[in-house]
Amino acid sequence: MRISYPQLCEPLRDSAWYDLTNGIRVRLSDPLLLDDGAVELNAPFPMRGNALLDNIETLLRCRFHGRGGKTYFRLAEPKNHIISAESFIEATLGSARRIDSALRRLSEPMTGVPWTVQGAEDLLEIIDAVRDGRMDHSEFSARMAQSDYEVGTPGYHQLFARNAHILVEHTRTALIRAFECGNRMMEQVRLLIENKKNRYFGELIAGNEINHTSPTAERLHAAFIDGISAVATALDLLYRLFVFLVREPFGHAEMPGRLYFPYNEPGKVYAPFPKGAKPLLTDLGAIDLPYAIPNIVPGSFLALRSFRNDLTHNMTSGHIQPICWIGCGTGQVNGTPIRYVVANAPDIDQEGKPLKHAFMERFFSQQRDATIICRELMEELALTADHTLQWLANRLEQRILHEARATAEP
Question: Which of 34, 59, 85 is the last residue of a domain?
Answer without folding.
Answer: 85
